[in-house]
Amino acid sequence: MRDPMIRNQEDDSFVSYAEELAAKVRGCAEADEHHFAGEAVALLLDASYNLLTIPKELGGRGANLYQMLLCQERIAEAHASAALVMGWHVGIALGLRLANAWSPARYAQFAKDAVHARAMINACGTEPETGSPSRGGRPTTTAVKVAGGFKITGRKTWATGSPVLTHILVSAYMPDRARVGEFLVRKDSPGVAIEETWDSMSMAGTGSHTLRLTDVFVPDEDLTDEAEPGKKMKRSADGSGWLLHIPATYLGVGNEARAYALEFARTYQPNSLSHPIGQLPHVREKLGQIEIERMSARTLLYQVAERYDRAEPADRLAMRGDLAAAKYVATHAALRMVDLSMRVVGGNSILHSTPLARCYRDVRAGLHNPPMDDSTLSMLAGLALESS
Ligand SMILES: Cc1cc2nc3c(=O)[nH]c(=O)nc-3n(C[C@H](O)[C@H](O)[C@H](O)COP(=O)(O)OP(=O)(O)OC[C@H]3O[C@@H](n4cnc5c(N)ncnc54)[C@H](O)[C@@H]3O)c2cc1C
């Protein structure tokens, strides 16, 4: 059955595009597992997936949030690490546009770099000293004013996609202004280095290494935004709907586990039975629970995305509770989908010869991408308490 989330011809062609790409990258998943998913990312770049959310008039594919999620879910089902690498880029490219965070000229130049030079962007905010940037800690990375620009020095960890990034949004404290700046840093600038520190049980192929900046000169015009320490930048002023690339990616992991469990239940027939295990009541109950998890998570995720796409820019921030709830529900559903799939498969599920061990490890990472559960629950509680 075709996905009921496909609303029209345009969605359908995005889905067909993503399914074609998913078929190409699927084979790379196991080979890439312990090092950067370079092969899968290269295949996606060859197919211009980095242009997914760039507007059509600037040479991109013009996907809105909803369509980006349809694509991310499919790429992630085939290769979760490659999907997360691309997800940050296509998400930020969408978010910058929707929030009008950059001048039209700067965005047009970035789009041109994406079209002609495979530009890839990510935001590197996390530092060992601050933990998650979403909690508002002041960066220890500093930007010191010099003639014509700034010199940035510091260290950012968890820099997903670092091997292929060309543009990096770096947060740094500006001591002379007592404010935090967000700078657009070219990875090929002198003083930028990637230290290959990424060694994770989850999303192992994302190349989320350490970005080391040593006296990196950034011209004045590449200070893209600034704010008081602890306050959000302009590109977050619309609630950051683009962050839904994260739950879509982890739902993709849940889908991969589900597909494996379904096929196993259809075909595995031990000689104690006269039929495959898919006919056993306890197996059917687990398969049914997986469907409930998946349907409820997808219904909420896509409903919120559709409303976000339709909302006036000024009304989007008011959806921050819905966005956070969609992320919470989808990442938890994905965790349960993987767990239930493993229970369906039984002991074989822990063998490296099945994809389930990788799904089990990958899906866990969703808890540690923003917004984190405690922030979501506390925000929702606050919104509920404030409502009449
Ligand atoms: C696969 C993956 C890819 C990532 N890619 C990127 C990326 O590209 N760029 C990037 O910048 N980051 C990235 N991150 C990092 C992510 O955004 C977080 O910074 C990181 O996971 C650490 O978050 P944390 O909340 O566990 O850490 P911490 O903030 O160190 O928190 C550790 C523990 O302390 C608690 N805690 C800490 N401070 C507070 C507080 N103020 N209030 C309440 N509780 C607190 C947390 O709840 C948690 O239990 C990535 C993470 C993952 C898992």
Terminal residue distance: 43 Å
The helicity comes to 40-55%
Fourth-level CATH superfamily of the largest domain: Butyryl-CoA Dehydrogenase, subunit A, domain 3
Give the ordered list of helices and strands: HHHHHEEEEEEEEHHHHH
Total DSSP E strands: 8
Would you identify the CATH architecture of the largest domain? Up-down Bundle
Q: What Rg, in angstroms, do the CA atoms define? A: 21 Å
> What small ligands are held by the chains?
flavin-adenine dinucleotide
Strand order of the largest sheet: 1-4-5-8
| Class from secondary-structure proportions | alpha+beta
Coarse shape: globular
Main sheet attributes: strand count, strand direction, barrel closure: 4 strands, mixed
The name of the CATH topology of the largest domain is Butyryl-CoA Dehydrogenase, subunit A, domain 3
CATH class of the largest domain: Mainly Alpha
In DSSP terms (H or I, runs of 4 or more residues), the helix count works out at: 10
How many structural units, i.e. domains?
A: 3
**Percent range for β-strand residues:** 5-15%
Task: Characterize the quaternary organization of these chains.
Answer: single chain
